[in-house]
């Protein structure tokens, strides 16, 4: 790939206790590409997103953003929907969104309306003034998504963003997210355990091996865009794509369980 936005070339990432979480991992991501990352639990998916966000240093290889090594947190460019709940518990849903608007230097007079609009978009229009503790897990997840949308960064890192949602809400939020993405084609790195979701949303899906994770395969998703979740699931290419992905991943999950 010429001029990838994000490029990992043979990177190794280790934790201070000496554990190697990712080994000799290579991946190029073009600007505007929607890339899925799947792999068995503990293979290093979150660790990779942390490295792209500048939260984890690489111990070997080269990890670059716009051709320059990533060193330190890339605040303006990268938005990260963490696997863990990252809402500020002492702030309401709207006030959590304000934090992102403030970072983007939106005039304070506009915060209320902007937060209301964004929370409405994720189906939480009636919950703007609730605190995280007063919301369900799925609702908290949607507030986190609202914060990310308010921040509106060029690169979006999402770590199992929709896993906590019920199936129906999930499809609606995924469709909304796809529609938003079509409007501005941000670069997205999307970690999920749900292979159907990966196929429906992504341009390509990277499969990682069992721990320590390395790249096993990159699968191009052969579906048309724009698409909705239902259109993707009923596409004639969908079953074979799912089968390929599932077979490849199952072998790695099997290895993880045998470790
Ligand atoms: N802070 C830490 N210190 C030491 N080891 C860690 C730390 N965080 C994660 N690890 C280890 O690094 C490896 C990769 O972890 P990581 O969280 O990246 O996996 P993952 O692919 O995101 O898994 P999951 O699908 O369960 O979220 C695992 O073996 C894990 O035990
Ligand atoms: Mg993880």
Automatic annotation (TrEMBL):
The ABC transporter domain, residue ranges: 6-235
Heme in keyword set: no
Keyword Transport applies: yes
PROSITE patterns xrefs: ABC_TRANSPORTER_1 (PS00211), ABC_TRANSPORTER_2 (PS50893)
Residue intervals passing through the bilayer: none
InterPro entries per record: AAA+_ATPase, ABC_transporter-like_ATP-bd, ABC_transporter-like_CS, ABC_transporter_ATP-bind, P-loop_NTPase
Domain of life: Bacteria
GO molecular function: ATP binding; ATP hydrolysis activity
Keywords: ATP-binding, Nucleotide-binding, Transport
PANTHER family: ALIPHATIC SULFONATES IMPORT ATP-BINDING PROTEIN SSUB, TAURINE IMPORT ATP-BINDING PROTEIN-RELATED
Record-stated family: Belongs to the ABC transporter superfamily.
Protein name per UniProt: NitT/TauT family transport system ATP-binding protein
Provenance organism: Neorhizobium alkalisoli
Taxonomic placement: Bacteria, Pseudomonadati, Pseudomonadota, Alphaproteobacteria, Hyphomicrobiales
């Amino acid at each position: 790939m010429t001029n990838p936005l994000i490029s990992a070339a043979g990177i190794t990432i280790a934790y201070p206790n000496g554990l190697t979480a990712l080994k000799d991992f290579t991946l190029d991501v073009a600007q505007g590409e929607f890339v899925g990352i799947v792999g068995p639990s503990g293979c290093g998916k979150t660790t990779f997103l942390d490295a792209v966000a500048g939260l984890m240093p690489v111990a070997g290889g080269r990890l670059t953003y716009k051709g320059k090594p990533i060193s330190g947190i890339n605040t303006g460019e990268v938005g990260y929907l963490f696997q863990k709940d990252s809402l500020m518990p002492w702030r309401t849903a709207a006030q959590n969104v304000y934090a992102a608007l403030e970072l983007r230097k939106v005039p304070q007079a506009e915060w209320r309306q902007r937060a209301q609009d964004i929370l409405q978009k994720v189906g939480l229009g009636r919950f703007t003034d609730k605190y995280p503790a007063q919301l369900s897990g799925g609702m908290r997840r949607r507030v986190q998504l609202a914060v990310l949308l308010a921040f509106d960064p060029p690169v979006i890192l999402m770590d199992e963003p929709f896993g906590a949602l019920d199936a129906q809400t999930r499809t609606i939020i995924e469709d909304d997210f796809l529609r938003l993405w079509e409007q501005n084609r941000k670069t997205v790195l999307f970690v999920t355990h749900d292979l159907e979701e990966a196929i429906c949303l992504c341009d390509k899906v990277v499969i990682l091996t069992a721990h320590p994770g390395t790249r096993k395969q990159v699968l191009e998703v052969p579906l048309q865009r724009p698409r909705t979740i239902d259109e993707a699931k009923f596409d004639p290419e969908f079953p074979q794509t799912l089968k390929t992905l599932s077979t490849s991943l199952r072998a790695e999950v099997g290895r993880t369980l045998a470790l």
